[in-house]
Amino acid sequence: MLSDDVFGRSLFSRKQREAQSVPGWKLFGKVPLRESPPKDSKTIQQEYEAKVSKSSQSPSLPTQSRRKNLEFEPLSTTALILEDRPANLPAKSEEEAQRHRQEYDEMVAEAKKRELKEAQKKKKQMKERFKQEESIANAMVVWNNEILPNWESMRGLRRVRDLWWQGLPPNVRGKVWSLAIGNELNITSDLYEIFLSRAKERWKSFRETGSEIESDVDSADRESSLDVIKLDISRTFPSLFIFQKGGPYHDLLHSVLGAYTCYRPDVGYVQGMSFIAAVLILNLEEADAFIAFANLLNKPCQMAFFRVDHELMLKYFAAFEVFFEENLPRLFSHFQSYNLTPDLYLIDWIFTLYTKSLPLDVACRVWDVFCRDGEEFLFRTGLGILRLYEEVLLQMDFIHIAQFLTRLPEDTPPERLFSCIANTQMVSCNRKWTQVFNALIKDKEMEKSSSPSVKNS
After folding, report:
1. Could you tell me the CA-to-CA distances from 424 to 331, 339, 342, 387, 389 in Å, in that order?
2. C-alpha torsion sign, points 344, 345, 346, 352
3. Rg for the chain (alpha carbons), in Å?
4. Beta strands of 118-218 (E only): which ranges?
5. Residues 122-162: pLDDT tens digits?
6. Which of 89, 236, 310, 381 could be a cystine partner for 85, CB 3.0 to 4.6 Å?
7. Could you say which DSSP state residue 270 is in?
């Protein structure tokens, strides 16, 4: 067993060896840190020119004697090509020195070119940002002064629909969503408070006794209304840190979801609902968010998915595939070769209305037009995403496609995505989405009526 003294001697002797100044090592960056700030390329160039001028004025001094006193401590590879070599290495030839000067000049020119390009890029970005802010400000005036006060008469106008497509200004977004979603269920703020009180009573009973009070909900709903909601809230937009425990919107989100489970115990809570409720909370007051949430989930497509109506879900997938093959035949064949069916990616997209897969700002723009066009736009958006990333997806296998579509790139460009959506035609054999979907429903009903089991009953 080695003693501590051996370790000590070995360690300190190593430090002493490393402390010795070996010029050759300095070429590869093993140089003591300087207290003075690093020199930029312009300073290095000036020092180099001054040095060349000085050396040309005193040519009588032998090269070897000049090199002996040189303390060679280059700060970068740029400096290396302008300095003479250390005394223990052969001097540069004239051709090599000339080549190094040329390489340095090229480096400086390239650096200036990059700086200019970066400056131009930033200038362009600022210009686009100011243009976008001006456009939003102008649109906000139109929405507040013209459209919203005359909602029923103006919502269907071509001019309004075109403005709607460009994205709603953030400060009118919630109001437009509420009006577009509607309130067919006739829910009021007072009704929300009633169901919220019921939810709070159940939570209180659970905390005190470990079980919920007697109610008309079954054990599955009790589990979903407590454990799953709590778990799902913590997973809702985790990067924002506002819906997690201790965050400003945690209790609010919990209240809306809890009230809904009391309002619709037949549906209960389904994973994915928290993302929809969270987006509404970010744009609406508490009661208004609940009203929009309940009415949105009551739409045929959302109800089919959240109640897990398998037959109806399959019809939505089948209709989607009709337009998938029509718009993107190459990618459709690629997916078929791997037996990659729409349910593997569409379920997540529809359950969360793209808020989990797309960046939040892009998802809100999708919501804008979804509120305008209805369920068809959800599937059109899916085809737009596939069109946007078609070339990438064509190079992938089953596993990578599924992973990619579950979590789309954070830098998904909204303008390019909406351009792809605009280029997606929701017409197949002169039939629109609704006609194709209804035909599939009718075919299913005919199959049921003609089946032996139905005839014998």
Report:
1. 14, 23, 17, 8, 14
2. positive
3. 34
4. none
5. 888 788 778 778 888 888 999 999 999 999 999 999 999 99
6. 89
7. -
